[in-house]
C-alpha cells in the first residue's frame, strides 16, 4: 500500500505529488502484514516482516509483531518439531522485544504466550525451567495491568498446570525444590523437598533412594531449620 498526498506548487499553482509520499511507509507495510494474517497467510507475513528489519527504527515493535506471527504459525503447524521450532523463534523475538521495551504490556503478553506454550511442548526439565520463567514474566505483566482478563486467565492456567506437573515422581519434586532453593524461594522449595524426602522406594531402586537422600540432605540447610 502506498500513501500519497498532493501539495500546491508556489511557483505554478498546480498540484504535485511529493516523491517522499510515493514511498511505502512502515505503517502501510504493517497494514499489509495484518491483512495477510487475517487471511491466515502467516508464513508470507513473516517473510515480509523479515524483509523490513533494516528499515525499522522501532525494533521492539518489529520483534513483537514477529513473535505474534510465529506464535500463530506454531498453532497452525501439525508436525510437533515444526511447531516447537516456531515457538522457539517466536519466544526469541519476544525476549528481544522485552529487552528493548521492558514496560510494554503487549510485549509481555506475547512473551508469556510463547514461553507458556513452549513449556507445554517440552520435556519435564525444560517444562519446569520455562514454567518458572513464564511465572516471572506473568508476575511483571500483572504488576503493569492487574485487571487484564487475558493475563489473569494465564495466571490461573499456570497454577493449575503447576499442580498437575508429574506430582508422583520424586526426581521432579527434588528438581523443583532445588530450583526454588537456588532462586531463594525457600518456603515453596521446602514444600517440594519435604514431598521428595517423604517418598518411599523398594530395595531395588537405588536411583530413587539417591533422590530421597538428596532431598533430606538439602532440608538440613539452615534456612529450613527456622
Structural account:
By secondary structure, the chain is an all-alpha fold. It has 2 domains: 25-145, Serine Threonine Protein Phosphatase 5, Tetratricopeptide repeat, CATH 1.25.40; 157-225. 68% of the residues lie in helices and 3% in strands. The chain has helices spanning 26-38, 42-52, 59-76, 80-100, 105-120, 124-144, 149-163, 170-182, 186-197, 206-218; strands at residues 6-8, 15-17. Strands 1-2 form a two-stranded antiparallel sheet. Helix 2 packs antiparallel against helix 3 and helix 6 packs across helix 8. The longest helix is centred in the middle third of the chain and has 21 residues, at 80-100. InterPro entries: RMD1-3_a_helical_rpt, TPR-like_helical_dom_sf. One of its GO terms (cellular component) is mitochondrion. This is Tetratricopeptide repeat protein.
- Rounded Rg: 25 Å
CATH class of the largest domain: Mainly Alpha
Mean pLDDT across the residues is: 84
Low-pLDDT parts are 1-7, 16-23
According to CATH, the homologous superfamily of the largest domain is Tetratricopeptide repeat domain
Count of all domains:
2
CATH architecture of the largest domain: Alpha Horseshoe
- Annotation field: number of helices: 10
GO molecular function, one term: microtubule binding
Protein name: Tetratricopeptide repeat protein
Pfam families: RMD1-3
Organism: Necator americanus (Human hookworm)
Amino acid at each position: 500500500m502506498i500513501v500519497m498526498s498532493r501539495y500546491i506548487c508556489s511557483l505554478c499553482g498546480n498540484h504535485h505529488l511529493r516523491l517522499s509520499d510515493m514511498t511505502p511507509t512502515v505503517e502501510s507495510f504493517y497494514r499489509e502484514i495484518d491483512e495477510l494474517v487475517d487471511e491466515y497467510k502467516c508464513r508470507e507475513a513473516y517473510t515480509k516482516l523479515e524483509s523490513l528489519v533494516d528499515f525499522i527504527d522501532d525494533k521492539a515493535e518489529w520483534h513483537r509483531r514477529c513473535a505474534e506471527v510465529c506464535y500463530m504459525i506454531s498453532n497452525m503447524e501439525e508436525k510437533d518439531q515444526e511447531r516447537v521450532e516456531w515457538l522457539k523463534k517466536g519466544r526469541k523475538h519476544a525476549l528481544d522485544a522485552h529487552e528493548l521495551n521492558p514496560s510494554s504490556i503487549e510485549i509481555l503478553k506475547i512473551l508469556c504466550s510463547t514461553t507458556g506454550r513452549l513449556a507445554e511442548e517440552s520435556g519435564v526439565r525444560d517444562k519446569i525451567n520455562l514454567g518458572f520463567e513464564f511465572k516471572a514474566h506473568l508476575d511483571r505483566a500483572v504488576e503493569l495491568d492487574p485487571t487484564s482478563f487475558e493475563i489473569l486467565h494465564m495466571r490461573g492456567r499456570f497454577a493449575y498446570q503447576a499442580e498437575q506437573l508429574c506430582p508422583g515422581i520424586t526426581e521432579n519434586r527434588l528438581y523443583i525444590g532445588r530450583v526454588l532453593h537456588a532462586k531463594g524461594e525457600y518456603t515453596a522449595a521446602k514444600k517440594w523437598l519435604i514431598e521428595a524426602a517423604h517418598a518411599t522406594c523398594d530395595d531395588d531402586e537405588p536411583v530413587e533412594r539417591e533422590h530421597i537422600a538428596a532431598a533430606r540432605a538439602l532440608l538440613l540447610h539452615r534456612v529450613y531449620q527456622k
